[in-house]
Amino acid sequence: MKTHQQIDRVARDLDPEVHQANFMGAKLKSERRYAALERDYPDSDKLRQVAGQIKQHTLEHLDQYLEQAEAAFQKNGVKVHFATDDAAVNATVLRIMNETGSQRMVKSKSMVTEEIHLLDYLERHGKEVVETDLGEFILQIDGDHPSHIVTPIVHKNRRGIAESFERKGLGDYNDDPETITRRARAYLRQKYLDADVGLTGANFVSAESGRIVLVTNEGNARFCMAANRVHIAVVGIEKLVPTDRDLGLFINLIGRSGTGQQLTVYNQFIGGPRVEGQPHGPEEMHVVFVDNRRTEVLASDCREILRCIRCGACLNVCPIYRQSGGHAYRSVYPGPVGAVLSPLLAGNRFPELADLPKASSLCGACNEVCPVDIPIPDLLLRLRDKAKREGAKDAMKGTPNLGMWATLCSQPAMWKTALSMGHTMNYIPTEMIPNPSAKAWQAARKLPKFQGGEFRKWFKNRK
Amino acid sequence: MSDREQIFSAIRAALAPLPEKTARPEWDDSLIVCTASGQFESLPAQFADKLCAASGKFFDSIEALAQFLKEQGGTFGYCDPALAGHFQGWDGIRVETDFDENKINEYSFGITRASAAIAESGTLVLKDCVTSARLAALAPWIHIAVLHQSDIVATIGEAIQGFGDDPSVIFATGPSKTADVEGILIEGVHGPGVQIALVLPE
């Protein structure tokens, strides 16, 4: 099959086993999501709409809420940092580690740290960093990258994981998922106890109280703030919501949308170092607010994408993602959200990813399942338009040149004249027209006989 | 210009051209309450049902709990000193009231207090000022959270209202779990593989 788009080629050449793992994982999560929301609420759409409005409102008043959050964190004894780009975030984290005499870090899952390649940076500067989410840990020992926002190793099977564990010296080959999990538990247990720093992301931030919310099933984020002295949270500035009360809505939505759970096992609301008398937990907490082009997205006509709470529901439901898998998107964020967000976050590398917004049939399923009601198909169209206007080459492959057609459609007089001459089309061999687009169109289709042109006459003479 | 100033000025520049801004929506507390709970005679009964649905275990008798621990081979654990009075004189089960990090892999259970529980979701609420040792509620295979019947609230919204100024509030709904490997559910990843609520009368 002839394919123009990179993503089509990846889907075509994908290992059938990987395709099956991606497809079944996505389908199962979609079904669970739907079942949980339908079971628990008479009108679950209402929750999505309210959540979308809260996030949109927060984004449109982001300066106020960010200032409020900063003050609330400081009142809680949290040190607040701001970082404009990847280099600034990495340098800030390294500086905190050096100033606190820290060498070893345990890290829970955070997509923003994938954006900025924090792990590589810290390792280059002589620090030990261990990913603690089971999936991320396996990716780390394989030198691989996540293919899904919530289930990062959905593209891997147990045999590959067992081989990686054997190579890493975590015991003889054993591909029983329970054994794999127990071995990771034992290995990471010691890493937690030895660590100086625990680094987390944040799923939400309450501006009112200066609390981050961490949502995990495994409990690794709890362990990243138990035995260690320092806690660093790296947080995108779009994670804010106004109040603690809003958090109730969002934790109800994220568990059901992501994995079909009423609540994710652990929802942690963290607003500062440990209390006096508590023997465990960090003595200091740092929050690093990250821009990394989010303000550029905020200034664009695609700012709605910043509502995203990274639940992965749009990936699971997307017919393109189900065929291509996450790595086909060549960026940190795959699926429909990634097709919007990744080109926007790429800055002047936009043309390299400008084909991603075309990886959609515009079926609208991503919008229907989105817990914050992001109009993803509209945003994809805006980005296709941007790619066209900026002449991004990859985005235009296979796209016919519609310049003449566009001129015709935008001039009423010309359009009318063309219609009155429409019948001549029936007498000329259209397949001979030396226009590549017209030729391509007709290669697989037959132009129907022109039968129009009578309506205007009829309408004009109508009494 | 500092990074902070750059970010704030970029945000303000991005928002200035907006002709109108989205208002904060009004919503009622009932919007997010799960309506699939069924009918229960009391909050403890609802909590017990939902906790079990989340693969947790509910006990309202210390004797039954002791029996369960023995069946699980849980003969040595940690106990919050304030609760130790309840758990003394157990035949064949030993508890320590000082958490020793060197014995982290020897404790088969940890007993700490929960500050509340949520009936609609079967969730335990662990607060830093109430949990005697973070690691004791996290590291042992079995975690036993002790609370009183009157600590159970109906909804997630009510539990959030009770946060106060505690810097670490944890909602724990069932045991630690993962489905990272081929989507197969495994309980007990980093945290407890068995999550127990012991609900005592006043």
What's the short story on this structure?
The complex is a heterodimer of chains A (463) and B (202). Chain A is of the alpha/beta class and 463 residues long. Chain A has 24 helices and ten strands.
Count of discrete structural domains of chain B: 1
As a percent range, the share of helical residues of chain B equals 10-25%
Q: How many separate helices of chain A? A: 24
CATH topology of chain B: Rossmann fold
What would your notes on this structure say?
- The complex is a heterodimer of chains A (463) and B (202).
- Chain A has 463 residues and is α/β, with parallel strands linked by helices.
- Chain A has helices at residues 6-13, 16-40, 44-60, 62-75, 86-99, 111-116, 118-124, 134-142, 158-168, 177-194, 220-223, 244-259, 294-299, 313-317, 319-324, 335-345, 350-353, 365-369, 376-389, 393-396, 403-410, 412-420, 436-443, 455-460; strands at residues 79-83, 104-107, 128-131, 197-200, 204-206, 211-216, 230-236, 240-241, 266-270, 284-290.
- Chain A folds into three domains: 6-13 and 306-396, Orthogonal Bundle (Fumarate Reductase Iron-sulfur Protein, Chain B, domain 2), CATH 1.10.1060; 44-292, 3-Layer(aba) Sandwich (Rossmann fold), CATH 3.40.50.10420; 408-460, no CATH class.
- Helices cover 51% and strands 10% of the residues of chain A.
- In chain A, the strands form two sheets. Chain A has a six-stranded parallel sheet with strand order 1-10-7-4-2-3, sandwiched between helices. A four-stranded mixed sheet of chain A has the order 8-5-6-9, sandwiched between helices.
- In chain A, strand 5 (204-206) and strand 6 form a beta hairpin.
- By secondary structure, chain B is an alpha/beta fold.
- Chain B has one domain: 3-Layer(aba) Sandwich (Rossmann fold).
- Chain B has four helices and twelve strands; from the N terminus they run H-H-E-H-E-E-E-E-E-E-E-H-E-E-E-E.
- In chain B, strands 1-12-7-4-2-3 form a six-stranded parallel sheet, sandwiched between helices. A four-stranded mixed sheet of chain B has the order 8-5-6-9.
- Chain B is globular, with a radius of gyration of 21 Å.
- Classes of the chains: A alpha/beta (463), B alpha/beta (202).
- At the A-B interface, helix 2, helix 3, helix 4, strand 1 and helix 8 of A face helix 1, helix 4, strand 9 and strand 10 of B.
